Amino acid sequence: MVEIFQNIRKIYRFSAPCEELANYIEFYSQSVLDLSAQYVKNEFSSVKMFPSWTPTFYINLGSPYYIDLKDTRYHVREQQDVLILRNEDVTRHKLPADNIFTVKFNPGGLEAVSGLNQVPVIDKIINLNQILPWELLQKVKRPVSFEERVIIVESFLLEKLIKQVSQDHYVKIVNDSIGEYQATGMQLNTSKVAEKLFITSKTINRYFNRVIGTPPKNYFSIVRGRNALTAFVNNRESFVPIDYGYYDLSHFYKDVMNLTGQRITKHQF
User: What would the pLDDT profile of 13-56 be if each residue is shown by its tens digit?
Assistant: First the structure.
């Protein structure tokens, strides 16, 4: 299974964060366990995910599995929980018995909530027991519902957020920059975004590298490419490249190749 090109969402349940955490967390999810969905899970031996620079917790409720990150294969044990940044392509090798609870943060969201900067996580897989309390992980692993797990994790993260005395200035500027870029239809370059926030291009570059770990030009390109490819896959006939800042379809196809390493013509929609 390849993210975006194929519907990865059909093998997971999703829940949106509460309003207080909406700026920092994209979603909570868990593997679908319903027997009616097993035939879908059995179709795929792996899930390939493209770069997004989104820190993600993977809390393992089921079987061991393997993750490929930067040409290295890691074995995640049955009781092992991990944090991955997803700054590179990540492939998780699946089993039908998979059961994983996921918390996907927005770029900089982990730092805003817990004070943990994501830059040291680049190209690494971090054991979650170095970050989250053992007691919390054990509560999440109890035989409770998906909704109860969301409440357990969200209550902890809200408490962490409240303890952050004030929002980090760097994180705020990066969040404002991303919001400005998306609000203007992903049409602006880095200099124009900086201009709208009354900062210099040098400053916005420094802030993005400090908070996310990559320059704004690279991050904005990933955001545009992921959004455009999702729209194209969902409705090819109504897709208009210029709506996403592309000159034409050739420009869009080239960007998809740079982002995913795959040609659109390989896939049927």
Answer: 999 999 999 999 999 999 887 755 555 555 667 888 899 999 99
CATH fourth-level superfamily of 169-266:
Homeodomain-like (1.10.10.60)
Output the CA angle 23-24-25, nearest 5 degrees: 110
What backbone phi and psi angles, to 5 degrees, belong to 126? Answer: -105, 135
Q: What is the model's pTM?
A: 0.87
The tokens describing 94, both together, are 């699946």
CB 157 within 8 A of CB 131: no
Helix (H) or strand (E) holding 217: helix 216-234
CATH for the 8-163 domain, from 2.60.120.10, 3.40.50.150, 3.20.20.150, 2.40.50.140: 2.60.120.10
